[in-house]
Amino acid sequence: MSMFLRADRVTLDFPLHALETGHSEPSADLLGGTLHKVRGKPFVRALEDVSFDLSEGDRLALIGHNGSGKSTLLRVLAGIYYPNQGTVTSDQPVSGIFNMSHGFRPEATGYRNIVLKGLIAGKKRREIDAALPAIAEFTGLGPYLDMPLQTYSQGMAMRLAFAVTTHFSNQILVMDEWIGAGDAQFSEKIVDRMSGFVDSATILVVASHSVSLLRRLATKALWLEHGRIHRFGAADAVLDEYEALTMPTSGPAGLMAVLNRREGFWFEEGDASSPALAWNLPFREKVPLQLFVEHPSRGTQLVANGRGRGYWRLKPWVASGMMFRLCGADGSVFAELQLPTLATPTQSIQQETDARPKLDSTTGV
Amino acid sequence: MPPLVAAFHDWRQASKLASLCFNLALEDLRDRYRKTLLGVAWIIVSFALFVGVKVLVFGQMVSTSQVEFGLYVTLGFGLWTFINAMVVDACTAYMFSRAWILGTAIPYPVFLMQAILRNSMMFALELVVMALALFWKPTPWSATTWLAIPGLLALLVTSVWLAAILAPLCARYRDLHHTIKTGMQLMFFVTPILWMPTISTTLARIAALNPLTSFIDIVREPLLYDRVPVHSWWVVLAINAIGLTIGVIVYASTRKRVAYWV
Description:
The complex is a heterodimer of chains A (about 375) and B (about 260). By secondary structure, chain A is an alpha+beta fold. In chain A, about 30% of the residues lie in helices and about 30% in strands.
């Protein structure tokens, strides 16, 4: 039988008392659910009548705002929650990567955690020992693997989690949103590995708020609203529609569209009246950053505060050849750009009423 | 899948993960004593000290020989610690593994076995002290002495159904855990561990009415007096049979909802 992952009319009700006992995890998801009563007991309908059919090579992007049921659906697919109605069927076990703190022992060393993860995946000790060097290398954590996990930074723990989980994972993998949280270098590694799934026979379901990441990965997209399927289809079409709806209406629409398509740090001429610097740093969409300029007379100047995706309208004082730099909070340089010769003299650049440099950050959510 | 079949399937899957259960239990034990000088030897040390002081104090109040009473307390208290831990830990087996239950699709019996193995490991260390104490055994060793081993196996069976029943119920009803913990503290005093039922008729009646007496006797009697307490065995077997049945029912009917409760 060929590979498949199938959801057939999946409906899931959360008992409300579960929330009273401090069940913090899915509660965020329940915001969008509808309340109803079954035999006098209150339930929140987190998923309703969700059906889809994935086969070998399909990579599904799961989108929808907070509380639309993404995490719940992923957990149902991974066999953690059992649907009240409907079924999830697959030809083989489904692996899941969820919250980072889940499934690890903080007091045990990195190595020990790798072994435990391998055992969970049902591997023999021999197979795990054989896999250790490759996993250790992928994490890039070196000697830290001999230290307790609780001494790791969140980014380090994530490296370990991803390396281990994907190494021991089954070929059907569901991932909740956390990919974009690591440093950019490792995030690239992650996308590389996930793109590797394209060649190998796998099914992947990824929930993320990073639409640009999803565009790179996904072939199909499923848009959830209040636990129901709002759209399901080819990734591009659904993601376009999702973005068009969720994008803030401020800012020139043309620039917004460009931001969603392009990555990096570039000069955007736009409609000649409002040239701008635009940037879209993958995996850093929400990371705070600062835009600096090397001013010929005043030295390095802070121009604007913003986030990993945004733009900045050129000010009248901006001249050709000026050096702009996007820096992280720790001062590390993310990207540099020397302003090309401007087609229009800077004086004709539309004056902004705001005296202070203003940054329109468009994080897409 | 019908609930019973699904439950059976869970346990079969979990049995394939025996090595995982063992390693998780081992980590629990290590976590508890990490960064200590004595490490898990603390279990032996604290148990030996507890028993020593108890014998010293309560030994003054009994007419039995100090040696016999000392062994009586050592064996009884060792068994009690095991029984108490398996009841109390059964309550937290799911709650304790909350992060794992929500993060991975591991069959739930793994978490129950983890708790059982963890307690068995601790008990194994206490058994060292108990075995050493047998040096003062008042009666000569005989074939009957070894019938303590099936007694220990019966206790293991008990811990399985206890976990299957208590873990989901305590996750759903949080007060149950505290109720049981308090209940067990009270039970300690009405179980013949620090006193012998032969002292008074009232105590004898209390011991007879308390089913925990039987669970202790099936191991302690053969070791101490080379006797097989037939009546106690019937009580334990009957309770285990009922417990296993209820355990299967509770496990099968709660497995789908555990993830909401933890």
